[in-house]
Amino acid sequence: MNIRTSAISILAAVAVVGCQSGSTSGDTAGAKGGSAASTEAKVAPVDLASLTAETLMPFQEGNQWVYEVETTIQAGNNRRTNQANLTYKIVKVEKDGDGTLATFEIYNGDKLADKQVWREDAKGIYQVAMGQDLKKYTSPQPMILFPVKEGDTFSWKGTGLVPTGKTGPIEAQNHVLGSQEVDTRMGRLAGVAIESTSNFSFMASPGKGKPEQLVKGKTDGTVWLAPKLGLIRSAQRIMAGQVGFAQTLRLKSFTGKQ
Fold it and tell me: How far is the C-alpha of 54 from the C-alpha of 58, rounded, in Å?
């Protein structure tokens, strides 16, 4: 089973690693405090009240993010870990009514691994479509809503591409945890933390020649978004049938216009 994740799918999807790459515990242990905090200067917290789509996520054609990705996948007694770098690049920006759409291409090395379309407007930042053929969600799935307030919750229900690459119903719940300091490969940064859980289902065959059956899955995780940088870190877990998956993304570099 190939598993795809993304910064929004758990929030319902930013990266596709699948069974070929990744490595990790998927924990959030570097999110607050830790040994690094005792040796580095304290990072100023994010001013939640000042956040807007334009200040939080720079939608400019050519902008590029490189992430270190660690992944662990376990199916039955088989467990594998790996590590990879994923590159997110905005290849198209266009107006969409009162908002803006950005098309991302996601590369694992030189290989195009995924495509995604995000939307931002005065009310929030959303994922609109994902997959090589850009399958749309029945409605834009929110990653963050404005104004941002610690303790706020928001939910989404619809149909779209689930983490296994199949299409099915999804129900997601999100909780704004507030500003947190996290470790990235660019050093320790402050970001607004959004915790998410979701339930999804899809039809799949348990083996060659066998009829498809309903498979249920669930996700939980946290993403951190920083002003002028967007996604700086995520920690996510997925269970789909008998397959378990954990992934951590850490920002290594950002190039482009902020």
Answer: 6
